[in-house]
Amino acid sequence: SRGLGDVYKRQVLSAFSAGQYANAKAAIDDLIATAEKAITDSKSAFEEAMQQAQSAYQNDDYDRARLAIDNAQMLDNSSQQAQALASQIERIPQITDLKEAIRVAKVENNASKELSLINQLLDIAPDRHAMQERADTLRSQLAETQFSRLINQAYRAIENRQATEAKKALTAAEKMYPSRSVVTDIKKQLAALESQLRFETHSEKAFAAEKSDDWNTVKQQLELALKEKPADKMISDKFAYAERIVSLSQTLKRLLATPYRLANPQNKTAADIALIQSQSYTQKSPTLAKMRAQLESTLSLIHISEPTRPRLI
Question: What's the confidence (pLDDT) of residue 311?
């Protein structure tokens, strides 16, 4: 086309020299048309070469893609689009290796490894939409597998009465799918287990305190146990028993703190009543039995020391 352009240039100059202005104008018009056609043809060739390069790149055909992009860059060496595609084409060997590794991982049914390899591929070729869709599918599958594993862990821990382990698994599962009905079910079962464990702990502490004759602790622990199981009759009865021993112990302790006041008839009556009321509880509380014995002894001494009043005739 360059040679043809030179011919048109000579024709134009010759026509101007001969004063043939009409011929010169016609020659100029032909020259412009030829130039425009050359530009159009070049653009068309560039676009076709780019399409061929892009197609070959998508098919991981390195040789054909390299040939096409070289042709495109010869037609337009300033195109940033062509430069970017050329860089992508150079990654084809790496992409091919990753795709083979991905295929093997899929055959091995190793979803975690497959997803990791796909992510590596997408880092260098984010335009691979099929791989992106596969990655989304794998992430969903792995999440479901992980969720199921956590749910099973939680149920097993509840069966084994391991509340801490169950709560840990439940918390992780709830972060993944908080609205799943199975999460709600495990929450209920875990709450029931934790309540039962608290009930047992308070009951055990109460029974241990009873053996130590620490009835204040017995009362406190049984009260906490009743918060977990208000309808438990045995614990309720035991709490009432402990409450009675604590109350009687406080009464006897108060009476013994001021023995000189027991000479007062009203106080002596209160002491007699306390002795009667505490009698049936002394077998369960050595401390209460000891205070009761002390009170009886104190009352006896006061009775002996009372002066004999003269009888009225």
Answer: 45
